[in-house]
């Protein structure tokens, strides 16, 4: 696993690598070579002469420092083998959405759900979490920045799928909730998740297969705008963290984002151009305005960015019956209870 | 070994360095102007907004490079530097499989062995990785193409970390550009790099597209996002520039993309259109 060089690694100091003794460090510092980059970028022969250090040992130090700090290439063949064996596709629980996403959420990738207020982003996130916990029996890390998650709601949705009280509790335990209120607590949550080796979230032998962030724009949107670059830098760091998390820990990451209109009046995802490169897949949720219709839970989902499917394909579904299509497909196989009254 | 220009090089080493490089001639003519196709020693920049087909075009070019000669490829090695975990090997394999005859697992494996992928998560790591790669180039005479997708990934993080000094903000990218220039000159490889279009080219003032809102409400054409924002040293080494954009949707709902390529040397431009299929990009 390749980690970015932290600040501690940048400055040359004694013991950073074998052969880098205190005398060498002082000699280099006298010639203004203070950091790893300075050493690597300079001509070794020239430097060895100027600092009266052995050329061979300086060359060896340079080689070790490079080996320690650079990333290592993997051949396409090895990468392909690895991905074939480790990539999993997680069903969202709704057949229409699965069809749009080419079977579901892929591990190792970041998918984005965008939509205006009240279009059902949180509802879908809950549905996905419940599906992964109950059907796939895997754990989910749910990072909630809007306060839209309630344990009662989760339990209600779980109860509709599982009848046994003990299994219901187990399913609820597999959904780990982490409330965050700003970008720094988001970083802390992600860092904690990575460093405690996400094994901490293991419950009953399941491993975390998905990380849901609802919503990422709530912690980032107010930091952007104006000329200051801190907000942009933090946003790109969040992007980097989430993508690295998805790849290294082999989880599917689902984030939600708001929408804005661009200059031509077209709807587009929020957080601007730089963020827009981050997700691999993007789905836009919209309400269906049908005159004379009393049903307010119908939504359309449109695929607006995908590396696998042609874009702008659209599916319709009802938020109330998250699993209804699936019910029809697996009705004979599953042992679930019928959804008698709408959860909404 | 690491600085062949300084240490004395044997005749055999020189020959290996220059002649051993497989030719990049025959790389897709449809994208570039006829008189000025990128070859060894050129640095090509793919610039465009998200979803305009830059990475897909890279897959197409990479496929052209790694396929064996019998199937119309150049049979050269490619190094793919991925800075934002963008690279999708499954998609590359699906494009390759469309070009290979059925059931040719061996050839697929041989093709995949010609591409190596490396992930970098900061501009510092990118710089050090490129130094490391430079050191191994003498041992890999068939490596003819270096792809960096994308080289603008760390722009905002570097800008913030550099504080108030523009020189510090651009320091890493400047070093990367200088190193690439050196590598390209000495080892005669070609470099293809993508940059994201994130800045509006506003004549009145520089306005970055942040937060999805703009201070002035006016109609924005997609071509407005062509402002050049990376540092000067990078701009200096780019020899060809290709601007990608999405064309307006036609009635059949098939998304068409356009690529306008211009060469710094001959001032010629070429406009081409393509659409995406399962087998990769297809020129129209």
What does this 3D model show about the protein?
The complex is a heterodimer of chains A (344) and B (284). Chain A is α/β, with parallel strands linked by helices and 344 residues long. Chain A contains 15 helices and 13 strands. In chain A, the strands form 3 sheets. An 8-stranded mixed β-sheet of chain A has the order 6-5-7-8-4-11-12-13, sandwiched between helices. In chain A, strands 2-3 form a two-stranded antiparallel sheet. A two-stranded antiparallel sheet of chain A has the order 9-10. Chain A starts with 6 loop residues before the first helix and ends in a 14-residue tail after the last helix. Mean pLDDT of chain B is 79; it is low at 1-6 and 203-222. Chain B is of the alpha/beta class and 284 residues long. The chains are: A alpha/beta (344), B alpha/beta (284). The interface between A and B is large, with 71 and 70 residues. Strand 1 (74-75) of chain A pairs antiparallel with strand 3 of chain B.
Percent of residues in β-strands of chain A: 15-25%
Low-confidence stretches of chain A: 1-8, 324-344
Radius of gyration of chain A: 25 Å
Helical fraction of chain B: 25-40%
Strand order of the largest sheet of chain B: 3-2-4-5-1-8-9-10-11
Structural class designation of chain A: alpha/beta
- Mean residue pLDDT of chain A: 82
Helix count of chain B equals 8
Can you tag this structure with a few keywords?
heterodimer; A: 344 residues; alpha/beta; eight-stranded mixed beta sheet; two-stranded antiparallel sheet; 41% helix; 18% strand; B: 284 residues; 8 helices; 11 strands; 22% strand; disordered N terminus
């Amino acid at each position: 696993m390749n980690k970015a060089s932290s600040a501690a690694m940048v400055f040359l100091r004694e013991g950073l690598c074998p052969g880098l003794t205190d005398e060498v460090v002082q000699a280099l510092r006298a010639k203004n070579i203070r950091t790893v980059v300075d050493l690597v970028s300079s001509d070794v022969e020239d430097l060895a002469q100027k600092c009266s250090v052995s050329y061979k040992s300086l060359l060896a130090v340079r080689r070790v420092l490079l080996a320690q700090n650079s990333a290592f290439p993997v051949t396409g063949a090895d990468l392909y083998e690895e991905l074939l064996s480790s990539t999993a596709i997680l069903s969202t629980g709704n057949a229409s959405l699965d069809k749009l996403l080419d079977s579901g959420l892929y591990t190792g990738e970041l998918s984005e759900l965008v939509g205006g207020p009240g279009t059902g982003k949180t509802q879908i996130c809950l549905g996905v979490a419940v599906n992964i916990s109950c059907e796939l029996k895997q754990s989910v890390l749910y990072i909630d920045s809007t306060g839209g998650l309630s344990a009662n709601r989760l339990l209600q949705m779980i109860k509709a799928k599982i009848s046994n009280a003990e299994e219901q509790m187990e399913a609820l335990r597999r959904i780990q909730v982490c409330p965050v209120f700003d970008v720094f607590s988001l970083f802390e949550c992600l860092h904690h998740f990575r460093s405690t080796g996400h094994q901490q979230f293991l419950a009953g032998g399941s491993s975390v297969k998905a990380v849901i962030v609802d919503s990422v724009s709530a912690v980032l949107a107010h930091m952007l705008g104006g000329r200051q670059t801190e907000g942009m830098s933090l946003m790109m760091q969040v992007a980097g963290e989430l993508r690295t998390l998805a790849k290294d820990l082999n989880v599917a990451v689902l984030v939600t984002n708001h929408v804005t209109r661009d200059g031509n009046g077209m709807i587009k995802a929020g957080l601007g151009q730089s963020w827009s490169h981050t997700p691999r897949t993007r789905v836009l949720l919209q309400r269906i305005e049908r005159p004379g219709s009393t049903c307010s839970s119908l939504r359309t989902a449109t695929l607006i960015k995908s590396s696998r499917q042609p874009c702008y394909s659209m599916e319709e579904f009802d938020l109330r019956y998250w699993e209804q299509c699936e019910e029809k497909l697996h009705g004979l196989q599953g042992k679930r209870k019928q959804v008698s009254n709408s959860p909404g | 070994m690491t600085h062949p220009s300084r240490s004395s090089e044997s005749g055999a080493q020189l020959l290996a360095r220059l002649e051993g490089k497989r030719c990049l001639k025959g790389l897709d003519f449809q994208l570039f102007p006829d008189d000025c196709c990128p070859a060894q020693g050129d640095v090509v920049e793919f610039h465009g907004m998200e979803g305009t087909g830059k990475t897909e075009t890279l897959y197409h070019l990479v496929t052209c490079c790694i396929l064996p000669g019998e199937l119309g490829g150049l049979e050269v090695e490619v190094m793919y530097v991925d800075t934002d975990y963008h690279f999708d090997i499954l998609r590359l394999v699906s494009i390759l499989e469309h070009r290979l005859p059925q059931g040719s697992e061996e050839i697929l494996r041989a093709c995949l062995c010609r591409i190596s992928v490396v992930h970098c998560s900061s501009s510092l790591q990118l710089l050090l990785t490129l130094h490391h790669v430079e050191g191994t180039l003498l041992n890999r005479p068939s490596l003819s193409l270096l792809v960096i997708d994308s080289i603008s990934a760390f722009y905002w993080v570097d800008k913030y970390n550099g504080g108030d000094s523009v020189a510090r903000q651009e320091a890493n990218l400047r070093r990367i550009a200088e190193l690439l220039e050196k590598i390209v000159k000495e080892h005669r490889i070609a470099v293809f790099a993508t940059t994201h279009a994130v800045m509006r080219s506003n004549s009145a003032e520089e306005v970055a597209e942040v937060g999805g809102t703009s201070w002035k409400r006016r109609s924005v054409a997609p071509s407005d996002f062509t402002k050049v924002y990376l540092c000067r040293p990078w701009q200096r080494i780019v020899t060809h520039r290709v601007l990608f954009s999405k064309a307006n949707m036609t009635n059949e709902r098939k998304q068409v993309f356009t690529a306008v390529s211009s060469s710094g040397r001959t001032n010629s431009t070429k406009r081409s259109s393509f659409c995406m299929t399962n087998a990769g990009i297809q020129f129209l």
